[in-house]
Amino acid sequence: QIYFSASAPNNTTNYFLNCADTGAARARIESNGNLQNQNNSYGSISDLKLKENIADSGSQWDDIKAVKVKKFSLKSDKKDTANMLGVIAQDLEASGMSGLVYESIDTTSDADEGVKDLGTTTKTVKYSILYMKAVKALQEAMDRIETLETKVAALEG
């Protein structure tokens, strides 16, 4: 069990867990519960018994149309070509989806000095929300396709 004794910082400066190697930070759990990892592999507790105020989502079509998917590589990996696929936080902000972006204060820590604020921040993307927006937009696209298929069948019939 990892916990803050006599404290509840609930922020992005204090980490419950910070996993790094000599190349880069690989994964971290911030004190507000945010989980970030380099490879973007994670899950979510999603049981009905834990949820309330449940309603169908509105359209996500326009938001997903505005997403710019990019190929890239991480500077810390020192690749010659792009080897990853994703979005850029600043692009999402420019498309009006700043709610999918948050900033974390960059810190370093060691046994002697403890946690030290580096004076910079790093933007991160709430991919789990972006993915759900994409699922909803896919459902909308499927509905549109099925409607068109029905119309085409009626015209051909």
Structure description:
This protein is α+β, with helices and mostly antiparallel strands and about 160 residues long. Helix content is about 25%, strand content about 25%. It contains three helices and seven strands. It is elongated, with a radius of gyration of 21 Å. The protein starts with 14 loop residues before the first strand and ends with a helix.
What's the number of helices? 3
Distance linking N and C termini = 66 Å
Q: What would you report as the Rg, rounded to the nearest angstrom?
A: 21 Å
Shape estimate? elongated
Find the count of extended strands (DSSP E, 2+ residues).
Answer: 7
What portion of residues belong to β-strands? 25-35%
Helix content: 25-40%
Determine the mean pLDDT: 91
**In terms of per-residue confidence, which ranges show pLDDT below 50 for 5 or more consecutive residues?**
none
Give the arrangement of secondary structure elements.
Elements: E1 15-20, E2 25-30, E3 35-37, H1 61-66, E4 70-72, E5 84-86, H2 89-94, E6 101-110, E7 114-125, H3 127-156
Antiparallel strand pairs: 1-2, 2-3, 4-5, 6-7
In short:
This protein is α+β, with helices and mostly antiparallel strands and 157 residues long. The protein has helices at residues 61-66, 89-94, 127-156, and strands at residues 15-20, 25-30, 35-37, 70-72, 84-86, 101-110, 114-125.
Keywords:
157 residues, alpha+beta, 3-stranded antiparallel sheet, two-stranded antiparallel sheet, 3 helices
